[in-house]
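Posting this for the archive.
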Amino acid sequence: MSRRRLFTVAGCLKRAIVAAPLVIIMMCANAAGALAADPSWTIAKSANVTLPGGTIESVSCSGPAACTAVGYDVNASDIQVTLAETWNGTSWQRQATPSPAGDTTSSVAPGLAGVSCPAAGFCVAVGSYQSGFAQSGLAEMWDGQQWTEQSSFPVPADSSGWQLTGVSCTSRNFCEAVGGYANSDTGVNDTFAATWNGTSWSLQATVNPDPNDFEFEQFNTVSCSSPSFCVAWGSGNAGNPGETLAEQWNGSAWQTQAVPSDDATVNSVSCTSRNFCEAVGVSSAYAWDGSAWTAQTVPGSAGSGNLQGVSCTSRSFCEAAGEYNNSPDVVPVAAQWNGSAWTSQAAASPAGNSFSHVNAVSCASARSCEAGGSWEVQVTSNDPQALAEGWNGTAWQLQDAVAPRTATYNLLSGVSCVSAAFCEAVGMHEDSAGNQDTLAEAWNGQAWTVQPTPDPASTSGSTDDNSLLQVSCVSPQFCAAVGSGSNGHLALMWNGTSWTLQALPGNSFVDGQLVSCASSSFCLASDANGLVDTWDGTTWSAGPAVTGLTYVGSVSCQSATFCEAVGASSADPQAAAWNGTTWTAQTVAGPVSTSLNSVSCTTATSCEAVGEVAGSNDEETTVAESWDGSAWTVQSVPGPSTTQGSQLTGVSCTSATSCTAVGWYTSSTVPTFGQMDTVAETWDGTAWTLESSPNPAAGGLLNGVSCGSSQACTAVGHAADQGGQVATLIENGD
């Protein structure tokens, strides 16, 4: 049997630990056609580790103690939603915002890009979201009590998709919102503008370049000093070239302004009157004097970076903020305008981060500004966390922005229950730095909660790669969990209060880690290659290796003098017995292509083992074997009728006549993301019966099961949540 086939279940889980979340499911399972749910199996609310998240895209202050920031975050179900938070002069607090339904996994899932608050009790925020195959603009209004979506926003008749990128309000009765839309008549993207009169929004005609140029154009920013004066800047983008443009609203029509450079990239504009505006962008700043735009010099890193936001309170005070690529890091930068020149400033950056992005700034006075953006520990983590900092007239200081709980991938690989009121489940999750850390969560009879676990740091300086694969408990005060660490195998012990990290001296770093405890003074751990460690109640020590197997998939101990190990080999032996001193290979009936993934023994003369048999075209079928003290016997196991491949990954027995096995099946020979189904089977001493287990909407995979009694079983694994993120899965069977 090939090594690839031997690691179909256990090896897939280990390989999944170093893969991206979406890859995990594609590698480990694919299925369709779920069975009807059986009332005896239910999905439990399992715990998941989450991370601080959020991105601030825009901020607006009506006073030193009244600022609103908007953007988006990815919630704990990996769905992007709108984000708004408010500053009261002391702290940031999140506000509830509507998030329209749409394509939650799209790059243009609901998000807010601009906000304007002319008063503490009135704000307008704009953005976009995906609706079917088209992008749609999004406008929300704050009335001092709540945010409400404005669903009656006007759209050009020839639009096949549109978005809002900026908004500027001078009062409750006047706002300008800008963006762009896909012109279905010309096939190009055009600028878009609309005005708010205190009651409703109305479309405005904007000036667009010659459609025969087939250039992508949209407004990116807007600022109004009065209902009769606004300035909007726009251009194409890196993927859709378009000329730089600036337009002015005079109270009745939009007119073009001459730009100082055709390749100018302006991200933000701020106007205090019709005779003074400042615009900033990539390595650039421009001033408007009422008749023309003039290029300005910004010194230092701010002038060489990307200024994302600018806010002016008068001709003699403006603050600009953005980011600078100080390779290999990205750092925040700021600059101040004093009426005659720009001065570079030092901006604050969170400790321990490498990538800080400041996207917006708003000033209530020369001594009070707020800036917002996001930061990441490392760019590959893809876990941005909201960033806020304030200007007090002297320096920029970090603030605690609201960092909503966002998704990370979690999975459970093993479970052990000693009663209806105590179970331990183990697995792994990813942290904000891209490290893969151990995960343990406990059931107290009412709820699952995540427990703190120690993780060994990588000695190589690379990201950590730690995971727990199996756990065995003999009481609520004693559990042993084993797994793979960055520097070799690892073991954790539970004493009823906390987990402690211990070394496994006999094992080098190879795939797989298994454990079974007969008591608090005897546990046996094995890796996939059969290297063994034993626990004597005080320490772990190396023991004799399992003989006869090329791959060990599971071990079950009833005492210090009896354990069964199962797995696979290139010949007949697929099991081995431990007598307290040595291992003895056993012949297992059935095809040589059998791979046993799990075993459970209730006595030395009663064991059940389950797994799969490799077939043609990479199709697998479930298999079960029983041990009666002298021989292994193949048992008939029913499988789903639509399967193109199925495996049993875990089994737990409470007696010779009561066992439960779990796993997964697929009805497709081609792996497809998020399509898999769980399998549950029960043994009554005479026959195996296929049960209908529930499945999350995106399918699920069960890796292990433990039965506290014949009427109470808990199975664990992982599944895709609503947003496609890998999350823990727990199912209860009664």
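The chain has a mean pLDDT of 86. The chain has four helices and 58 strands.
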